Amino acid sequence: VIVITGAIDIVADSNKAYVIRNGHKMMSKVTGTGCMLTAVIAAYCAANPDDHLDAAAAAVSAFGLCGELAYEKTVKNDAGTSSYRTYLIDAMSKLDAETLKGGMKIESR
Asked: What span, in angstroms and rounded, lies between the C-alpha atoms of 25 and 4?
């Protein structure tokens, strides 16, 4: 499984690929978001050991969605980058199935 992140994220293996359109450009202003994402991918893969591709795609989408939610809160509170980082972590810790289902932007290729 390979993961490529950017404005549009790609998660693929030799048979299938996912295009993911979650996230916010402010994520690139916070040092360590790639490391955070790697940890989230590892956790999702550990929870779904029989399908690492789907697990990684779900992790990338979930983390991106949390980036979107964190940005909304940052704007609402007229806050800065440090607050955004905290809101991103908060969003991950509070993410529920309903929010995830309603916000995932994944397409299979």
From this structure: 15
**Residues in contact with 76: Cβ distance below 8 Å, sequence separation at least 6, in sequence order:** none
Provide the pLDDT confidence category of residue 7 given band limits of 50, 70 and 90: very high
Residues constituting the chain: 109
What is the DSSP secondary structure assignment for residue 27, as one 8-state letter? Answer: G
Domain extent listing, the chain: 22-104
15-69 pLDDT, tens digit each? 999 999 999 999 999 999 999 999 999 999 999 999 999 999 999 999 999 999 9
For residues 99 and 82, give the distance between their C-alpha atoms in angstroms, rounded to a whole number: 24
Residue identified by tokens 């293996």 is 13
pTM (2 d.p.): 0.94
C-alpha distances (whole Å) from 44 to each of 23, 65, 69, 104 are 18, 15, 20, 15
How is residue 16 annotated by DSSP? -
